[in-house]
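Re: that chain you flagged

S.,

Sorry for the slow reply, it's been a week of failed gels. I finally had a moment to sit down with the sequence you sent. For the record, here it is as I used it:
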Amino acid sequence: MFKKIVVGLSLAITLVTASFAGNQVEAASYHTKAIKVAKSELGTKYKMGGISSSGFDCSGLVKYSYQKAGKNLPRTAADIYKKGKKVKSLQKGDLMFFAPNKAKTPTHVAIYIGNNEFIHSSSSKGVSYAKTNNSYWKQKYIGAKRI
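Prediction finished late last night. Pasting the structure tokens below so you have them in one place:
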């Protein structure tokens, strides 16, 4: 009887662990895919309200990239900011939010890609990379979320 209980518990633990690992793989997978999609748009021009390869604004690029990865996000940086879980330690695929004068409502969103870099669509450079310690963006950073 004891042996059956131990075998049953072992099986249950294995199933729970496999399920949890599967969720982590799925999350890593769509984050990786969203980054890949965003990178494929490097050099695309900035277009206010743009949500396609003919031109992106910041939230348009994020929404487009995550939608191609299987996750539907709201349209604006402020609405995207209402989703996900706040994080302090950035991981690839986390969304970074920026606001003028450290206001509480973000006006810009980007995707963290690792190595202290993010990808975004800026009005001056279109879809491009920036460093997290960039003096312009660092002073506007208000936090990150994991979707």
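What I noticed first: Residues 2-24 have pLDDT under 50 and may be disordered.

Talk soon,
D.
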